[in-house]
Specification:
Layout lengths: L6 E10 L2 E11 L4 E5 L6 H8 L7 E6 L2 E3 L4 H6 L2 E4 L11 H5 L14 H15 L15 H14 L4 E5 L7 H16 L3 E5 L3 H7 L2 E6 L2 E7 L5 H10 L9
Parallel strand pairs: 3-8, 3-9, 6-7, 7-8
Antiparallel strand pairs: 1-2, 1-4, 4-5, 9-10
The chain binds adenosine-5'-triphosphate and magnesium ion.
Length: 251
């Protein structure tokens, strides 16, 4: 691809104590692209994306957004760059409804400075109608929603606040088949809208279906990044297990 990537992470490293959690890793993401991160537990996937989301500060390396070098020192910095994250453990306030969660910490207020519930609900209905037309549960606490419906609310929040770069850390890990399909449809829709998405999952087959490219990490290092049409599921599995890229190196 010749266009400037939405995100370029170059030579990123971070260590915790003696452990090199991410060790000289480089990765790009283009608009309208889904890039998957695969690898064993502790490979460094979440740590890498937490550097992009401002949760951790890298020890070294550079990050560019739209070709321009940026410093991401906090989640606030990431948000200002339209980078939104949906974490492994979904952070929704259980006792609040969908609209209140959508605007949590960024409430819409009326002229008197009070939260404008009617306006929030109207906006919430608008954005969810676009993302998940089947969503009906607007007036119940999100604790009463299914896992997939909760994901819809979390994704709606990112989309409403103009995410251009969406990070999803195991969004389907706790979901059933039907719910996973719903999130997969959401991802396709966001991709069509031109967002760039980093997706982390342990489900290799699901990743082959959802992603344009997949990257495999092992022990903090990048094993390789390949377009899904260039590799088989077995290639990916051997990258995960052996830490070698059969597409690039002779076995
Ligand atoms: N805050 C932290 N303090 C110390 N060590 C950490 C911290 N965060 C991550 N690590 C270590 O960094 C390494 C990479 O962890 P990370 O969470 O990125 O793995 P992962 O690939 O996301 O794994 P999983 O698939 O289990 O989610 C692990 O050895 C982990 O113990
Ligand atoms: Mg993780």
């Amino acid at each position: 691809m010749t266009t400037t990537p939405l995100v370029e992470m170059r030579d990123i490293s971070i260590a915790f104590g003696g452990i090199k959690a991410v060790d000289h890793v480089s990765l790009d993401l283009h608009a309208g692209e889904v890039v998957g991160l695969l690898g064993h537990n502790g490979a460094g996937k979440s740590t890498l994306i937490k550097i992009l989301s401002g949760a951790y500060k890298k020890d070294s390396g550079t990050i560019r957004v739209d070709g321009k070098e940026v410093e991401i020192d906090s989640p606030r910095d990431a948000r200002d760059l339209n980078i939104e994250t949906i974490y492994q453990t979904l952070a929704l306030a259980d006792n609040l409804d969908a609209a209140s969660n959508l605007f949590l910490g960024r409430e819409l207020t009326n002229g008197l400075g009070f939260v404008d519930d009617a306006k929030q609900e109207a906006e919430c209905r608008k954005v969810l109608a676009r993302l998940n037309p089947n969503f009906k549960k607007f007036n119940v606490p999100v604790s009463a929603l299914s896992g997939g419906q909760r994901q819809s609310v979390a994704i709606a929040r990112a989309v409403y606040f103009n995410a251009r770069i969406l990070i999803m850390d195991e969004p389907t890990a706790a979901l059933g088949v039907h719910e996973t399909k719903m999130v997969a449809d959401l991802i396709d829709e966001l991709k069509a809208q031109g967002l760039g998405i980093f997706l982390i999952s342990h489900d290799t087959r699901e990743m082959m279906e959802l992603c344009d490219r997949v990257s495999v990490m092992k022990n903090g290092k990048m094993v390789g990044t390949e377009r899904v049409e260039d590799v088989t599921e077995d290639d990916i599995l051997s990258m995960i297990i052996l830490g070698k890229n059969p597409v690039r190196e002779a076995a």
